[in-house]
């Protein structure tokens, strides 16, 4: 029985591992891996790999993020929780027309910059239909790491898709996927005054890729707000006589735009700051992040770069290069995603559990059966006894005839003191 269970376990987990390692274009892991952050000067945005050839990958994004043809930009991808180094790309096609529905660009980057093949999520073909109103979008909101967001389509026009939730700054160039993430059905570039995200549909993007831009340009709605027209404000919260606050002020580069406020004034506004120094980041007057404590060196630069402050476009890596689990530095980990790792851990735990069960059953069985085996041995010993095996000598084996003759009955001896009478 145990062998059968073990065989079933191996088969099930082998099938699950094969599914996890297969290049399934509908998995959210592939969608996240195909999406990226883009750095171009002071601009921040998002993009997605939608096409590839023998030597290069092609990333779709907004023209207002990367600029004109020939510009050099940096892209960052993520794999299994690890971020890549900035990868250099070049803008090969770009077109933007103010107040129209076209704000598109294509960035080319070499395949040799990646340790292995990257997932590609293609554009929806002509006639592609998806009855589900659910959509997925991946973007680097506020310049942070790429995150997955689920929403739904509200309505569509000739060239635009209105969807919920609202697109926020940093998601410029975010791809809009269908429900299962197998196709790119739009590209985000605006939001509306009533809280909708606004994206170019696949038909408009496909026409741009073919070079037929003029045929799809349509006017934007009056309440469309370009995502690049957003204000990001950095606030340093201080207290009177706070020495760490003074050190934090000195550590902030001169070109960073920030303001300082006293902790009592900030808490009167309802932000509940507990300690100083504390950074508050506001995007369009909405609090997006709160970071307490003194930040120096690489940690401070990474924090400022995340929100678009400063001129440094590179960030320190989140992990050491010697990390064996980092797929960007260890090619053997490239094809192994987090699902495969969890499966391997589960198999190891199950194997040790199964060994422990077997040992427990063996030990318990031996403890229970030993007395019975002893009694059975004694019983067999009595049944097959012989003079040589140490068993009682007067016991006889069944069915065996005795070699000794039966003794004749003896008469009682006469008593010397009695006479025989007739």
Automatic annotation (TrEMBL):
Q: Where is the composition biased (Acidic residues)?
A: 312-323
* Keyword Signal set for record: yes
Q: Where is the signal peptide?
A: 1-20
The biased composition feature labelled Basic residues covers: 397-422
Q: Which InterPro entries match?
A: Peptidase_S1_PA (IPR009003), Peptidase_S1_PA_chymotrypsin (IPR043504), Thioredoxin-like_sf (IPR036249)
Q: Residues annotated as region Disordered?
A: 312-331, 386-422
Q: Which CDD domains match?
A: TRX_family (cd02947)
Question: What highest taxon heads this organism's lineage?
Answer: Bacteria
Keyword terms? Membrane, Signal, Transmembrane, Transmembrane helix
Q: What SUPFAM superfamilies does the record point to?
A: Thioredoxin-like (SSF52833), Trypsin-like serine proteases (SSF50494)
Give TM segment ranges.
350-377
- In its UniProt entry, what is this protein called? Serine protease
Organism per entry:
Rubripirellula obstinata
Organism lineage = Bacteria, Pseudomonadati, Planctomycetota, Planctomycetia, Pirellulales
